[in-house]
Design a protein that fits this description.
- It is a single chain.
- The protein is an alpha/beta fold.
- It is 39% helix and 20% strand.
- It has 2 domains: 210 residues, Glycerate kinase, MOFRL-like N-terminal domain (Rossmann fold); 165 residues, glycerate kinase, domain 1, CATH 3.40.1480.10.
- Strands 3-2-1-4-5-6 form a 6-stranded parallel β-sheet, sandwiched between helices. Strands 7-8-12-9-10-11 form a 6-stranded mixed β-sheet, with helices on both faces.
- Helix 1 crosses helix 11 and helix 14 crosses helix 16.
- The relative contact order is 0.13.
């Protein structure tokens, strides 16, 4: 069963390859003859390379801004910069300033390729704030369990380039934006903090978030910005998202002989709670053949959060998997997988984890108390001890997370 799980993961990564997805879409649309390309996000290099290869003579030049380690080499005619993720730092600001310099040097039509991670990679602080202020704010919100809507409502207002500010800054340019969504519900003002889109979150909501999480006064004073004004120089299309990933997982599981069900693509909340839920349902299936008959696969998509209370190492998918492992302890015929489609889970070198009914026993044999490790948010080391970490390397894309249980 573990080999089945790995096959499903491999197929999801293969079918969501940003080059494949983008080429499929470029074949369907008409674009101007003379284009500049700007690509921002974890999938930026692959998207830019695909655009260059497919459109070639129609592209004048381009700029790529991606995560450290995600560039795969030179692209003729393109400037390439790498920056920090998930929390911005000076490299983010330096790279973003270079991107603005590029946009100031051109005129006409821009193919803007946006993918997950852009909120951290593309950052220039508002006047009166430093990148340290933004980094500390981002870290506090992430560790406090803020969801993406709360997080980005704040980030738009403390940045010079988010919440439609980039589009307004360059009204002389016409942007055609193609988006790989990493946001549940595909809200374009939230993906990458919406550099080209008017904001749907109100100043009142942003202020509520700032107060809820105790953000400093110098940050709160920026929350009254109304970013809702209509933007006229942008057209856009979402070309890939978590629903596509779930459908690929479903098709892959069916090919392997499982009765596959998608339970939903918008799961959020605390990672450990979703892990408990998935584990309990899997246990019910194995022990009572309900609510689904074996062999079956339950597939979910979404993006959970972790309220960090301990000093351990991990990510939301690892925390979910560890919580699920506790629920299926000693239950045979179950595999549960949680992984980030970008290949990274939190500040670790893994995408997530694959656990089974013997995972907890393997942890205990290695001297690890899984409950204790879960409480101090040290899922990485618990799952390392059981040999359950899932390492894919950077996938070049990001469409949230996929969770699934295989039951035989």
């Amino acid at each position: 069963m573990r080999s089945d799980a790995l096959k499903i993961v491999e197929n999801v990564i293969k079918e969501l390859n940003p080059s494949k997805v983008l080429k499929e879409y470029l074949e369907k649309i008409d674009l101007p003859e003379n284009l500049y390309v700007v690509a921002v996000g974890k999938a930026a290099w692959d998207m830019a390379k695909t655009a260059k290869d497919y459109l070639n003579g129609r592209i004048s030049s381009g700029f790529v801004l991606t995560k450290h380690g995600h560039s795969k080499g030179l692209i003729p005619g393109f400037k390439i910069r790498e920056a920090s993720h998930p929390v911005p730092d000076e490299s983010s600001v330096r790279a973003s300033e270079k991107l603005l310099e590029f946009l100031r040097s051109i005129s006409g039509n821009v193919l803007f390729l946006l993918s997950g991670g852009a909120s951290s990679l593309f950052e220039i602080p508002e006047e009166g704030l430093s990148v340290e202020d933004i980094s500390e704010t981002t870290s506090k919100l992430l560790k406090s369990g803020a969801d993406i809507y709360e997080l980005n409502a704040v980030r738009k207002r403390i940045s010079k380039v988010k919440g439609g500010k980039l589009a307004r800054m360059f009204r002389n340019l016409k942007f055609t934006e193609l988006i790989i969504s990493d946001v549940i519900g595909d809200r374009v003002d939230v993906i990458g903090s919406g550099p080209l889109h008017e904001d749907e979150s109100s100043p009142e909501f942003a202020m509520e978030v700032a107060k809820k999480y105790g953000l400093p006064e110098k940050v709160q004073k920026f929350m009254d910005q109304d970013l809702s004004g209509k933007i006229e120089n942008v057209s856009f299309k979402i070309i890939s998202n978590v629903e596509r990933a779930c459908e690929v997982a479903k098709a892959s599981a069916k090919e392997l002989g499982y009765d596959a069900k998608i339970l939903g693509c918008s799961f959020d909340g605390e990672a450990r709670e979703l892990g408990r839920f998935l584990g309990k349902v899997a246990k019910e299936i194995v022990e009572r053949n309900r609510p689904f008959e074996r062999p079956c696969a339950m597939i979910l998509g979404g993006e959970t959060t972790v309220t960090v209370k301990g000093d351990g190492k991990g990510g939301r998918n690892q925390e979910l998997a560890l919580s699920a492992a506790l629920e299926i302890y000693s239950v045979p015929g179950v595999i549960i997988v949680a992984f980030g489609t970008d290949g990274t889970d939190g500040p670790t070198d893994v995408a997530g984890a694959i656990v089974d009914g013997e995972s907890v026993e393997r942890m205990k044999e290695s001297g690890v108390d899984p409950k204790e490790y879960l409480e101090r948010n040290d899922s990485y080391n618990a799952l390392k001890a059981s040999g359950d970490l899932l390492k894919t390397g950077p996938t070049g894309t990001n469409v949230n997370d996929i969770y699934f249980a295989l039951c035989r």
